[in-house]
Amino acid sequence: MTEATATLAAPPTAPYSRTNPFPAIMLVNRRLSGPESEKDTRHFELDLSGWGLSFEVGDSVGVYPTNDPDLADGIIRALGATGDEKVPRLKGEPTTLRDALLRDYSITQPTPKFLKAIAQRADAAPTLSYLLAPDRKQDLQTYLWGMEVVDFLIEHPSVRFTPEEFVGLLSKLQPRLYSVASSLKAFPDEVHLIVDVVRYESNGRLRKGVASSFLAERADDVPVPVFPSNAKHFHLPENPDTPIIMVGPGTGIAPFRAYLQERQVTGAKGKNWLFFGAQHVKCDFAYEEDFDVFMKKGILTRLDCAWSRDQAQKIYVQHKMAENAAEIWKWIDAEGAQFFVCGDARRMAKDVDATLRKIVQEQGGKSVDQANEYVEKLKSDKRYKRDVY
Predict the structure, then answer these.
(1) Residue 377 to residue 380: CA distance in whole angstroms
(2) Alpha-carbon gap, residue 233 to 348, rounded angstroms
(3) In 297-341, where does DSSP find H-type helix?
(4) Residue 19 CB burial class (10 angstroms; 0-12, 13-18, ≥19)
(5) What DSSP state is assigned to residue 328?
(6) 358-361: long-range contacts (C-beta < 8 A, 24 or more apart)?
């Protein structure tokens, strides 16, 4: 890996990229969620001094994690290997099995190739053979929930792989993209991230998210390889006077903290309205102090929060939108506001989209078709922007 030299000016063409990530240094690893929270939500600050690259608010950075050493060791034991065996890498010179499992290969989710090899070689894997049929994809997904590569090795000790064979059944360890939670105009040599650390129990073992546990548990004293990832569709309005409405529950808050920092530093006059949601106000209000300051300084015009578990009935960001339907319609239709959504694609973004269409229909006195047409035009005019995952 290229050594970062903070003292030297970046060359005209920066050497760092997705294929040659910059070795950032962890400056801050702080838990945002309180001890009573069901989540471990972290704020990370990475030092980018000397990287010669840049990002805009709304962009993401990719993080190349290394795998959990305990998990790699468990796989080596299950293979009956030592970890010192030489194996091929997807790129570059061969390396040891242990190093390849830490840095090169994805060792959590089993690949179809790996599952087929287990089904073919195992003494008793009829269930797996049955589930690998092309018309059983949904059943296979259900069966595989919480199952990792190591589980299959432990459950089928009759199956033997040489280290080289085994890595040939794995996929490449991919970078994880995180929305940037800071502006380079406010923090010129840093990037901030907000991440939920994934940990859960299944099959009697603790499972961990690859990148989130790398950042939370193993990155304090090793470089964090990062690169910028442009999100052209999710940038602030070109006109700094344009009002914006931001919907970002949970870690979806990241780009909007960056937007507010950027608008403060640049002196943008556009109004800013934020909808934030989480489980409990007491222990899940990420960046509460930041938003208090933005409110006091007049940067944040309005803040509406939805706390889903603080009362008998669950309240989400879309409910807060519905409560403020007339005002949202005024901002969008009369004042030309842009509407941004960041976070969970499966449920939240769909519910927010449905609520927005209903607001347009009811507040604008439109038919369902007219409301849908209006919202589609917001999208094509780049006034309705989503970064959902």
Answers:
(1) 5
(2) 19
(3) 317-323, 325-329
(4) exposed
(5) H
(6) 358/322, 358/325, 359/321, 359/322, 359/325, 359/328, 359/329, 360/329, 360/332
DSSP 63-100: E-----HHHHHHHHHHHT--S-SEE--SSSS-EEHHHH
- Residue 328: phi and psi, rounded to 5, are -60, -45
Contact 159, 153 (CB under 8 A): yes
Domains of the chain: 22-63+176-229 (2.40.30.10), 69-167 (1.20.990.10), 233-388 (3.40.50.80)
What are the beta bridge partners of residue 195?
42
Question: Per residue in 279-308, is it b (16+ CB within 10 Å) or e — as a string?
Answer: bbeebbbbbeeebeebeeeebbbebbbbbb
The one-character DSSP state at 232 is: G
d(CA 343, CA 253): 8
Cβ–Cβ under 8 Å, residues 183 and 261? yes
Pairing of strands 244-247, 338-343: parallel
What does the pLDDT read at residue 13?
53
Residue 188 CB-density burial (10 A; 0-12 exposed, 13-18 middle, 19+ buried): exposed
Q: What is residue 123's predicted lDDT score, i.e. its pLDDT? A: 72
Taking alpha carbons only, the member of 146, 266, 161 closest to residue 207 is 146
Express the helix, strand and coil content of the chain in percent, nearest 5 each: 35, 20, 40
CA 142-143-146 angle, 5° bins:
85
**Environment class of 223 (CB within 10 Å of its CB; exposed 0-12, middle 13-18, buried 19+):** middle
Strand partners, 343: 388
Ranges in the chain, pLDDT < 50? 1-12
Phi, psi at 369, each rounded to 5°: -65, -45
Helix (H, G, I), strand (E, B) or coil at 11: coil
The Cα-based distances of 129 to 85, 119, 140, 145 in angstroms read 30, 5, 10, 17
The answer to whether 173 touches 105, Cβ cutoff 8 Å, is yes
